[in-house]
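2 proteins. here.
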Amino acid sequence: MLMKAEQSTLLLIDVQEKLMPAISQGAEVIDRCTTLAIIAGLLEVPVIGTEQLPEKLGSNVESIRELCNTTVGKTHFDACPDGLIDELPEGRQHIIIGGCETHVCMLQTALSLLDAGCKVWVVADATGSRNDLDRDVALDRLHQSGARIVTTEMVAFEWMGHCQHPHFRDIQELIK
């Protein structure tokens, strides 16, 4: 099954200022999440962010905060009980997920979205945990649970669909 821009929502989980220095390859995760959000904006894909206890962990990093259409504050690790489901745009069942921590908040949110009947894609190169083993095991568990594991480039090219897309050159520059 291909991801379709007109059916997608990009969900960026907890890319927060105080959390990111502890994340393995955190700068790369921020870069990939930002790239995804820019591409989503070009293709009119809504972007939702979440923040875990923002009063303690800070807001999402500025590049993410500026690109989100809405942000859901949360206390649960799974964003769904804190209102995420209500924020999902109607008619967009393809949920593309990046963020942190892969084995906690991202995993629990993705599993709940799957249970709610959403089609979930997890962008492996836009996810992070404090250690790589936790991240890798979470990605494996998500795959076994029905989520599709993809990369930023896979998302970009599937959302565009063809090389004559009006934003092809802009997006190609972003992912180079």
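next one coming up
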Amino acid sequence: MLIRRFSQFTLALVASSMLQAADFTLSSPDLQTGQAMSRQQEFNGFGCSGDNRAPTLNWQHAPAGTRSFAVTVYDPDAPTGSGWWHWLVVNLPATSNGLRAKALPAGALETRTDYGQPGYGGACPPVGDAPHRYIHTVWALDIERLPVDAQASGALVGYLLNQHALGKAQLTATYQRRAQP
């Protein structure tokens, strides 16, 4: 009898967490799910000539117990065998509900992207590739600060995010570079 009640209680907690995580959403005035990003979000370098401007991101309904947030932008279609990290921002306060690249809150930390340095690195897929997906993710974390510095790799940050995630919300946009006439 005690085991049955414990199991019912555990199921109720899991169901509650899943419902709460389903309410966690990410939006952007600069991006639309499934739609192409603009040249504002294209990298400026590596043969690309965009504005390299990070999109504004907004989130709501984070899971209970969130102690901080992180934001990542990842391209799983990059021809590297391991994808490409375009932006990693950690240690965003639990009170935040959005991110504007030029106005990171106190304590927030940008870590190294696959361009080799911290900060936003926009889309720059090879000319002629099919559209690449850019997965923008906000992570609700059970820890106030990740134990990393600005030189931490995307793989390390990703590992720690998965270890401490209470939930995540995503917005996936696309980008394709065409040959110049």
